[in-house]
Amino acid sequence: MNRLIYLDNNATTQVHPEVVEIMDYCLTECFGNPSTVYSFGRKAKRLMDESREKIAKMIDASKDEIVFTSGGTEADNLAIFGIAKANKDKGKHIITSKIEHHAVINSCKALEKDGFEVTYLDVDKYGIVNLEQLERSIKKETILISIMHANNEIGTIEPIAEIGKIAKEHKIYFHSDTVQSIGKIRVDVKEMNLDMISISSHKLYGPKGVGCLYVKKGTRLKPILYGGEQEHRLRAGTENVPGIAGFGRAMELAITDTDKENERLTRLRDRLQEGLAKRVKHIIFNGHLTERLPNTLNCAIQFIEGESLILKLDDLGICASTGSACTSASLEPSHVLLAIGLPHEIAHGSLRLSLGRDTTDEDIDYVLDVLPKAVDELRAFSPLYKEFLKKGK
Amino acid sequence: MYSEKVMEHFRHPRNVGEMENPDGTGRVGNPVCGDIMELYIKVQDGVIVDAKFQTFGCGAAIATSSMVTELVKGKTLDEALKISNKTVAEALDGLPANKLHCSVLAEEALQAAIEDYRKKEGANK
After folding, report:
1. Which of A160, A283, B1, B16 has the smallest number of Cβ neighbours within 10 A?
2. Within this chain, do residues A374 and A238 fall inside the same structural domain, yes or no?
3. Residue numbers in chain A where pLDDT is lower than 50
4. Residue A121 is inside which H or E element, if any?
């Protein structure tokens, strides 16, 4: 099987050739330490600054508001622990949601052990956070609201601008994990009243191991790593210059043609969804119908288990993912699928297909051709399906 | 993460399907946990002459079901009862740590099927 149909772009993406090019140049011609004063080191510094400027411009920020990190997880950790450390004299209450990425949820859980109180907001069946509950949860000790822009599993887009307004009214710092949305949909930190956002390079055709936290000027934040004075003293350690150079180029490429690419992806994704709805019986589509990332399709296929379907698809050359417990070490199904109200047995049959810049109409045709057969093969010996059929008679 | 043997049994499960008039049936697991295994046996003169299964579950659950049905065929009931989760896992060249419970499920399904057979036998006597 030589065919590779990569439909797991929410997990990671293939590095863009132009990104490889600038990284190659950086690794071979520009190995100097950007903190040095001689011209060779300054060459590396210049590359890094260009990246910083590009990224800042794309989100309507200024270049000294960008703090490079090792990726989205570190950016989330810096935002949450950094705000907690710097503002605990004001209060120890944080508001987040039940469907955040583990980088946010587990950071909050760690703070709970240190005496912080955390409110995890509910979401509706589409995955949209409850704004009334958000307003009700705010108290004078609240120091941070952290709500993701778009969910990585179901693609639902949160009303970030409205949450930003609420946070601003109450003078509470607002952080958003925009790891899945940046490059797919527009993000404007000013319009959306954001104090901090996390970005990861490898989700937008850049290299792994690099990302950044946007920190609005004047935000009271303490570092979580101690050492040198890099990154406005918020992130010690010699910068990952080739990664940062690649990240900048990737960001530029991703954001330049967002609208056109969105239209293309939405059309492909909707065709995939309609095709599956027709060809696979007992399938449930998850996430918001319209407020959803253009590339993301999440469904639950009843009477089969997700991991076995992923393995079958792998044999057919298709890369996809599932929120089934069977792929996690904890043996708990996805917290996101449980939060939108799916029962465990249905969450076990979940499948996420996330399209990307290389996805074509032919890929969609192929998936629509082979996926229903793979489902049938697994259902053929599923005792749950057998019972369902008997009940129907 | 899976051994070639696990993948081979997952791709080509042996003895799959429902058995007509089985002498013993064992059903273990539940949909909430994401695994259900149903094992059927046919017994003649104290020997398991045929075994089949139906499973809802992950790759490892399907492979362990397939392997346990292979292992029991031709065994006396007492011999079959000695097949443990470890026997099943080893026959598959090992399982990842978080999948060992699948081999436990296979052992339990087999024991349940034998118990079911013995109960029916007892009732017929």
Report:
1. B1
2. no
3. none
4. strand A117-121
Question: What structural domains does chain B harbor?
Answer: 4-124 (3.90.1010.10)
Place of tokens 């590779």: A4
Residues A322 and A335 in one domain: yes
A315 touches chain B (CB under 8 A): yes
Euclidean distance between CA atoms A115 and A112, whole angstroms: 5
DSSP string, A255-315: HHTHHHHHHHHHHHHHHHHHHHHHHSSSEEEES-SSSB-TTEEEEEETTS-HHHHHHHHHH
Please answer yes or no on whether B56 and A383 come within 8 Å at the CB atom: yes
A108 is catalytic: no
Average pLDDT, whole number, for chain A?
95
Catalytic site includes residue B33: yes
Of A311, A325, A384, the CB nearest to B36: A384
- From the candidates A322, A326, A384, which should be mutated to test the interface with B, based on the most B CB atoms within 10 A? A326
**Predicted complex: ipTM over 0.85:** yes
Structural domain total, chain A: 2
Interchain pair B55, A304: CB under 8 A = no
Phi, psi angles (nearest 5°) of residue A158 = -85, 155
Residues of the domain holding A97 = 17-256
- Using left for φ > 0, alpha for ψ between -120 and 50, and beta otherwise, residue B120 falls in alpha
Co-location of A211 and A72 in the same domain: yes
- Residue A4 is assigned to a structural domain of this protein: no
> Among A197, A229, A256, where does a domain finish?
A256
A101: left (phi over 0), alpha (psi -120 to 50) or beta: beta
* Whether A139 and A263 share a structural domain: no
Q: What is the pLDDT of residue A114?
A: 96
Give the ranges where B1-125 is alpha helix by DSSP (H): 4-11, 59-72, 77-81, 85-91, 100-124
With contact defined as beta carbons under 8 Å apart, do B106 and B37 qualify? yes
Q: What pLDDT does residue A392 have?
A: 78
Mean pLDDT, 10 residues at a time, chain B of 125 residues:
96 96 95 90 96 96 97 96 96 94 94 96 80
In A, minimum Cα distance to B96 occurs at A329
pTM of the model: 0.95
- CATH no. for residue A219? 3.40.640.10
Q: Which of B36, B54, B62 sits opposite A308 (nearest CB)?
A: B62
**Does some domain include residue A9?**
no
Cβ distance of B34 and A333 shorter than 8 Å: yes
The reply to whether A284 touches chain B by the CB within 8 Å rule is: no
A112 shares a domain with A243 = yes
Residue pair A78/A134 in contact (Cβ under 8 Å)? The answer is: no
